[in-house]
Specification:
This protein is α+β, with helices and mostly antiparallel strands. The chain is built from 4 helices and 5 strands, in the order βαααββαββ. It has one domain: Alpha-Beta Plaits (2-Layer Sandwich). Strands 2-3-1-4-5 form a 5-stranded antiparallel β-sheet, covered by helices on one side. A hairpin with a 6-residue loop joins strand 4 and strand 5. The longest helix has 19 residues.
């Protein structure tokens, strides 16, 4: 694998990578993360008792919207025509957390890892924003790429933790 920094030119200046010569291919990325919280906060989310509204629905929509705006947020990211974005949220009582998993898909010249990671992060921030009045000690953690398929660098699957 080529391990040089592709966002730097020969003089070390930041640049957007030229992907024009790369072939189009189906690209899929899956990212995950979690928002850890007090058990009481998780209970309030489950019961729909957070005053700002339905936390999970709003966070899911925010994650999708975030993925669609990734190139506006990450300076050297290519704007991509997403063909699919899914944000799945689940409540984990054992970990006292909302577990987040985002899948992004496109057919194009560059991958969708940043879109999947952005979806997870924006969903997590939305959960925090909507529940911070009852739990300021929440912790956003474990945001990482879980899987990537397509492209010239091949497939990737994260090691189990």
């Amino acid at each position: 694998m080529d391990d040089h920094l592709t966002h730097l030119d020969e003089h070390g200046a930041a640049r957007m990578v030229d992907v024009s010569a790369k072939p189009d291919s189906e690209r899929i990325a899956i990212a995950g993360g979690a928002v850890y919280m007090k058990a009481e906060t998780l209970r309030l989310i489950r019961e729909g008792a957070i005053k700002k509204g339905d936390v999970l629905t709003i966070a899911r929509i925010a994650g999708v919207m975030g993925a669609k705006r990734t190139s506006d947020l990450i300076p050297l990211c290519h704007p991509l025509p997403l063909t699919h974005i899914d944000v799945d949220l689940s409540l984990d009582d054992t970990k006292s957390a909302v577990m987040i998993r985002a899948t992004a898909r496109t057919t194009g010249k560059t991958g969708v890892e940043m879109e999947a990671l952005t979806a997870v992060t924006v969903a997590a921030l939305t959960i925090y924003d909507m529940t911070k009045a009852v739990d300021r000690a929440m912790r956003i953690a474990d945001v990482r790429l879980l899987e990537k398929r397509g492209g010239i660098h091949g497939d990737y699957t994260a090691a189990e933790e």
